[in-house]
Specification:
This protein has one domain (3-393): Na+/H+ antiporter like fold. It starts with a helix and ends with a helix. It is built from 16 helices and no strands. It has helices at residues 3-23, 28-40, 43-75, 78-83, 86-110, 115-124, 130-140, 144-175, 181-213, 219-236, 241-255, 259-266, 270-283, 290-319, 326-332, 339-397. By secondary structure, it is mainly α. The radius of gyration is 21 Å and the shape is globular.
Length: 398
């Protein structure tokens, strides 16, 4: 079997598996990861496709992660920026910081991970899964006020995690080759600066390109060609490619009137990239390593739960907001965003042997929060809805 056939088989497998996962109420993300793990555990299949998957994993990861971040940049519009309420931003910062600290202290003091590695792992714990949250929120049909609050909170939550990763990852990457603190700070700061600068330049260029040629050329090859060129230039310059794509996507979103055209075009293939990414990285999981890492996985899961619950409780307590239950809000933030896997896969390329270990921790933790997050969220929102109904009834009686 050649690499083209493997790619075709994986795409078709993802389509059928995604359909049946939803039929048995299994989260799609977990299902795709399980498919990858399952393929790696069947000796005949694993032996045949393993060489091909190892060849495409790097490219699938780079393209999928970069385009995901570009699309996140597209979501940052003037409307979103004007919509953010100070209360939402405050709660997002408090619970993100609390989660980061809870996981960092656990990784550094209990699991004895190095300082920068502990910080990097802690960024994986921050983001909340927007797709799961918004699906369950609309399924339970809580009030519009609660929906908008959660939607803003989750979006800003992801933004904080990306910002933290963009600051910490270059430090960690350069620490692998340099122990001098001044050189480390200088090199990582320079990489971040150049990445932001390239992102600005490419975002402006993309805006002008789409404005001038979107009516003359087919949008699919025009947009795809530019994004692939942008990713390639970033990698050639050894820059932080996902920073470049996030910045360029944000610049384009804020400066162009063709945002919907680009967004709809990317939707044509980002799902395929997404499932390929999850399957090939599920294939990369060493299941035997679970026997070594299960205690670490359990400890980090507990730390993240503690961080999310206490962070939401602290944030809402300081605001003295009586509309939203502190505990229910914390539970609502437990589903973990797949962006954690993107960050872990991106970091793994630079971390050697320990990268596989950290990647395994992140993937199994992600599976837990995927499986447990939605039922817990449904429970929390049902309780919140009952509370809101009771409160509305009391107000009518008065």
């Amino acid at each position: 079997m050649n690499i083209i056939a493997v790619l075709g088989a994986l795409v078709l497998l993802s389509l059928f598996s995604g359909y049946y996962f939803t039929r048995i109420r299994l989260p799609r993300i977990t299902g795709y990861i399980i498919v990858g793990i399952f393929l790696s555990m069947i000796p005949p299949i694993s032996t045949i496709i393993s060489p091909h998957i190892s060849k495409i994993t790097y490219y699938v990861n780079e393209v999928a992660i970069s385009i995901l971040l570009f699309e996140f940049g597209l979501e940052i519009t003037r409307t979103h920026l004007q919509k953010f309420r100070s209360k939402v931003i405050f709660v997002a910062i408090v619970q993100s910081l609390t989660t980061f600290l809870a996981v960092f202290l656990t990784a550094f003091y209990i699991l004895k991970m190095p300082l920068l590695l502990s910080m990097l792992v802690s960024t994986f714990a921050i983001p909340t899964a927007p797709d799961i949250v918004m699906f369950v929120v609309r399924e339970v049909k809580v009030t519009e006020n609660y929906i908008s609050f959660l939607e803003e909170l989750v979006l800003f939550d992801d933004f904080i995690s990306e910002f933290a990763f963009f600051l910490i990852f270059p430090l960690f990457k350069h620490s692998l080759v340099s122990s001098n603190i001044y050189a480390l700070l200088l090199e990582s700061s320079f990489e971040i600066f150049l990445s932001v600068l390239l992102g600005l330049v490419m975002g402006i260029t993309f805006t002008l390109l789409i404005k001038k040629f979107c009516a003359k050329f087919p949008s699919f090859p025009l947009i795809t060609g530019f994004l692939l060129l942008e990713i390639g230039i970033s990698l050639s310059l050894n820059l932080h490619s996902i920073i470049v794509l996030l910045i360029s996507g944000t610049v384009f979103s804020l400066s162009s009137t063709h945002r919907k055209l680009v967004h709809d075009t990317l939707k044509e293939y980002d799902v395929m990239l997404f499932v390929l990414f999850l399957i090939v990285n599920g294939f990369a999981i060493n299941v035997k390593e679970f026997n070594v890492t299960y205690i670490s996985i359990f400890v980090l899961i507990v730390a993240r739960i503690f961080g999310k619950l206490t962070g939401a409780y602290a944030g809402m307590s300081i605001l003295k907001n009586s509309v939203f239950s502190k505990l229910n809000l914390g539970i609502a933030l437990l589903p973990q965003s797949s962006i954690s896997i993107y960050f872990a896969a991106h970091a793994k390329e630079y971390m050697g042997t320990i990268g596989t270990h950290i990647f395994t921790l992140t993937m199994f933790g992600m599976i837990f929060f995927e499986l447990a997050g939605a039922p817990l969220l449904r429970y929390a929102l049902t309780k919140e809805k009952a509370k809101q109904t009771e409160l509305a009834g009391k107000q009518q009686q008065l």
